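This entry is set out below.
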Amino acid sequence: MLIGLDPVLSPELLHALAAMGHGDRIVLVDANYPATRGRRLIALPGIGVVRALEAVLPCDTFVPVPAAIMQVVGDRETVPAVVAELNAVLLGRGWPVAVGTERHAFYEAAATAYAIVQTGERRLYGNILLFKGVIPPEGA
């Protein structure tokens, strides 16, 4: 374990985060997500999606909407508890709440992401797509 780094960040996840650049996306998904649709799968089987989000933030500052969540099928206005918790983490770190995205559009975006991180989250709709890349210099 490296001192000062979140222990949730596995070697494979650290490598992915370090390799990502401007415009790259990473997707944190629940245990039910069809993660075989992505290019690179990283497993965090014992970790919930909210905890994984806390470990991988911050988001990209060069995009107006740095995060997206999957909308509930047939009821896009509903905000599941897990999504409310994800948004609370984003807001607590100074980021805007995640924008809702239709299920199949979310799948399409996730399929082109740099990596999909499949967590052990069992609550439905525990999925969030993040833009990672440009982080401002300290003090900016």
User: Anything to note?
Assistant: The chain has a mean pLDDT of 92. The CA atoms of residues 39 and 86 lie 24 Å apart.
